[in-house]
Amino acid sequence: MTDRVVLTHATLVDGTGAEPRPDMTVVVEGEYISEVGPSGTISGAPGDLVHDLRGATLLPGLIDCHVHLRANAAARPADVHLWNMVNSAETQTLHALANARTALYSGFTTVRDMAGSRLEAAVRDAIGARVLDGARVVAAGLVGMTAGHGDMFCPATMDERRMWAPADGVDECRKRVREYARLGMDLIKICTSGGTLSAGDRTEWRNYTLAEVDTIVDEAHALGLRVAAHAHTRAGIETALTAGVDTLEHGSELDERLVERMLEQGTALCPTLSISEFMVERGRERGLAPEQLDKARALRERRLESVRLAYRSGVRLIAGTDSSNTVRFGAHARELQLLHQEIGLSPLEALTAATSAAAEALGLGERTGVVAPGRWADLLVVDGDPVRDLGVLSEPGRLRAVFQGGREYAPAVPVALVTP
Ligand SMILES: [Zn+2]
Question: Once rounded to an integer, what is the mean pLDDT over residues 72-101?
Fold first, then answer.
């Protein structure tokens, strides 16, 4: 007896960017992929569980590189800013778990949480131990300054229960990184410019001096943690690149010189187009203040130009939605369509941005993101051809199965119900 699952007669998109291969077979043994080859070259064994996948495409489990799990998961939308303030840590944890499960059922087997702390680490560990179902979580600890982008999500008058205690000056920054290392966070997130959704600050505000960012990156790298930097402005991007961050989030004001530096340093760009679209299309009805809508509109066009320049120049793009209290969990595949429609990536390139490129940027390049022997069995079975039409990834009923670490999940939630 074996516990092999044989997925046969499928069109395979392997995540490397290679052209789809028809009539392929993938064998799953335990948590891993054990064999990949043309159907007919792989022999069956007694006890194999065989799925005939004619008409379907098999691809790696997708990765959303930018989410905020600590967000309202209920069907009824909640206030974008107040939800975290008025709900207990226990409630937020339960919603975070539900959001991770929604991501998994919509085909995203791994997510990177970009503003985590103890809560996200607990969610990650419960899912990792298979206590509860959900996308695998890679959790960043947020190090942010007083009046920084993260800090400005909390009203200024609220002294207690701020979501993240600010760290100011090189000594506090270094200490905060060490605290996150002690907590077992997977990477460090910083902001080097203001944001759009935070209230009261301006996008062009400097977040951290170069000395502080240098210290954070130095300490994080010394402790084996990568650093992701939220940066909209040219100055913010420059600071982040000078300090040597590993991924750039948003990157709304790139120019040729900055793109050149990203190429030299191998910095990946996570443009988060979904959140820009959301804020422009739905921000008003979701109660965003006029100042935030103005910031969002101004930023959207600049960001598209900036990301197009990065793409044309060969910067590695990775897919991230910024799913949170704004963009609902479950609509992650929309980012791939936006990368295709707005930036010009081919569907295959957009799929790579959510598979092998994403896995490498998260330090999981040897584990997931590619369908190959020895990798985790993170796989999707989709009816139809996402290389011809990325829309099938978001269509209700198209997702036939999701495998994560060899375990099969039939998507219980129709994807349409959880799109915004
Ligand atoms: Zn974010």
Answer: 92
Distance 100 CA to ligand 1 centre (A): 16
What's the gap in Å between 226 CA and the centre of ligand 1?
16
The predicted pLDDT at position 268 comes to: 98
Ligand 1 centroid distance, CA of 66 (Å): 6
Classify residue 283 as exposed, middle or buried by CB count within 10 Å of its CB (0-12, 13-18, 19+): buried
Class of domain 4-60+369-413 (CATH, top level): mainly beta
Helix, strand, or coil (residue 139): strand
Cβ pair 10, 56 in contact under 8 A = yes
What value does the mean pLDDT of the chain take?
Answer: 92
What is the whole-number distance in angstroms between the Cα of residue 203 and the centre of ligand 1?
A: 14
CATH 3.20.20.140 matches 62-332: yes
pLDDT(161) > 80: no
The rounded Å distance from CA 1 to ligand 1 centre is: 47
- The whole-angstrom separation of Cα 143 and Cα 159 is 18
The rounded Å distance from CA 26 to ligand 1 centre is: 35
Q: What pTM, to 2 d.p., does this model score?
A: 0.94
Q: How confident is the model at residue 225 (pLDDT cuts 50, 70, 90)?
A: very high
Cα–Cα dist 120/369, whole Å: 22
